[in-house]
């Protein structure tokens, strides 16, 4: 008997519709955000000429999410998640459009970039736990692995494609059209999320359950190591945040290349990530989720350490870094989402976002200061050491509880985990 046959028809249809609409919604939203942040980073760097100046832009994006993500996560677990996503998208559209208006009236570009990205981060602090809660709520558990590979592939493809084009488009047209495009992507995302419809009614409790032998022993629930799985997933957020800052400076300052090279490097990373996400289904059948999360992250860090040696080494290593990052990221996300109870997934992902970005802010300040005091390559190597220590330590703390958990899971669940 298939797993679909045990679910009501409305729930199956709703899950399939959500898969079809949430993937393109992730693509357009991340593409618009990448246009916004890349253009803003280029403007700020050319104005200030320091790594830390670019770092403060990313910190301005992160602070609201650190402060508000957990609070909003608790709200997400109590309110309609679909409508929260729609509301966050529409507020973001208005905020994104306000930046080009500010530039048109002659406002300072630096100040406008900091304020607009700060305000967008406030709504992102709501959207992130709401969207993850919506995924857990609407996508069937046995489909989460495959969905997450598609979702991460679409989202990161949108981000990297837009980042690769942003460097060229800023040169050709200036930054303002990119900010307008970002505003439109939020509107498209809101329409797609609204289109998934209301949450279907839950299936009635099976008759067999109600008539089960009351004297039968009840197994204790399997303990889920949520906090350690959250740290494993948050480790990827740290890397993304810091790497976005120091990579911009590495290209523009250390290698002395133009904004065009940011586009080329992001395109190469995008190719690697897309191939990695597309291959995740086959790769995940050969490795356990925890092993794939760790090996993927370590592979990415090895490539990270090679990148600052020379710009040729950067372009050669970054596609492999993208491939490895995809494996580690999707595996960690799926492990955390499967372990999260549906009624607490908002606060779990909100808290994870807060922790990851909080650590990322500290790492960004420290490593940016290190780059300005010495050279940018030291910041790359410091990031690799930091993330490597986190992932190795987390793995050893997770090995025993995850092994015990797998022994208690039924066979069909284990098969679904490899999907």
UniProtKB/TrEMBL annotation:
The chain crosses the membrane at residues 21-47, 53-72, 84-105, 111-130, 151-173, 179-197, 230-252, 258-280, 292-310, 316-336, 348-370, 376-398. It is a multi-pass membrane protein. Keywords: Cell membrane, Membrane, Transmembrane, Transmembrane helix. One of its GO terms (molecular function) is transmembrane transporter activity. InterPro entries: MFS, MFS_trans_sf. GO terms for cellular component: plasma membrane. It is found in: Cell membrane. PANTHER family: INTEGRAL MEMBRANE EFFLUX PROTEIN-RELATED (PTHR23513), MAJOR FACILITATOR SUPERFAMILY ASSOCIATED DOMAIN-CONTAINING PROTEIN (PTHR23513:SF6). This is MFS transporter. It comes from Amycolatopsis alba DSM 44262.
